[in-house]
Design goal:
Number of strands: 6
Mean pLDDT: 89
Helix content: 25-40%
Distance between the termini: 25 Å
Low-confidence stretches: 148-156
Order of helices and strands: HEHHEEHHEHHHEEHHH
Oligomer: single chain
Structural class: alpha+beta
Number of helices: 11
């Protein structure tokens, strides 16, 4: 990946995600491997113009990239070219926790049954309470979540956010779009509410078909990222992509 790449438009952001195949939204352990580091700071959370945060939804709807917390619990894009291999690795050997241990199965079943649900609808449907949290932009929220959870814990002690993140990391669900509240002038405002669905429901039942073994998919992903991210070590790539145990 060339250093100093600048993303200044929605088209450029989508092109970069498709070109690289994998593109985290926020900075991570691999330097330079994120939209945050490629887009000018003035485009983030700017009341005067849309920027990377607002461009996510339209890019998802274009259908070329899946989006969710797919990078060690952080959000980002995976192109449809690479999603089958990623799911092949992430779903291998994974079993949902029993209902008696967590709300995981209940949340996943509710999303499948309704075909898609907003986070607010999941909370209502599955009886997950929420504590009032300080108003933070998404970058500030990521920093806060490194030291504490913003949601009330329930049952096994896991928050709804923790469960949704795990389901995304195992490619069982993705974000279908973001929906915004409207002000009195019918203009959208706020950070947007995620609508979750499954890749199968969003893209088609055969979208995750992969003829390779999980080990072959993991090797293919690692080779690709090693080529485009010369600044990254093998350990960093495997850790960020969740390939440690494949």
């Amino acid at each position: 990946m060339k250093e100093g790449t600048i993303i200044r438009s929605q088209d450029a952001m989508e092109h970069k995600a498709l070109e690289m195949g994998f593109l985290p939204l926020f900075s991570n352990e691999i330097k330079g491997f994120s939209v945050e580091e490629m887009a000018p700071k003035e485009l983030w959370f700017n009341d005067e113009c849309d920027g990377p945060w607002e461009w996510k939804g339209p890019i998802i709807c274009n259908g070329g990239c899946a989006y969710g917390k797919l990078f060690r619990g952080k959000a980002g894009f995976v192109s449809m070219e690479w999603l089958p291999d990623l799911a092949n690795c992430r779903r291998h050997g994974y079993k949902m926790r029993p209902k008696s241990a967590s709300k995981e199965q209940e949340i996943y079943a509710a999303i499948v049954q309704n075909e898609s649900l907003l986070t607010t609808e999941i909370r209502q449907t599955c009886g997950m309470n929420q504590t009032r949290a300080p108003r933070l932009n998404p970058l500030e929220k990521i920093e806060a979540e490194q030291t504490h959870r913003l949601h009330t814990k329930r049952n096994s002690g896991e928050s709804m956010e923790t469960i949704l993140t795990r389901l995304q990391m195992h490619t069982l669900i993705v974000v279908a779009d973001f929906e915004y509240k409207l002000d009195k002038h019918q203009q959208p405002y706020g950070w947007g509410i995620a609508r979750y669905t499954t890749p199968e429901l969003l893209y088609g039942a055969d979208v995750l078909a992969c003829k390779r073994s999980p080990e072959e998919s993991a090797q293919r992903i690692a080779r690709h990222l090693t080529t485009i991210l010369p600044q990254a070590t093998e350990r960093q790539i495997k850790h960020l992509m969740g390939l440690d145990n494949i």
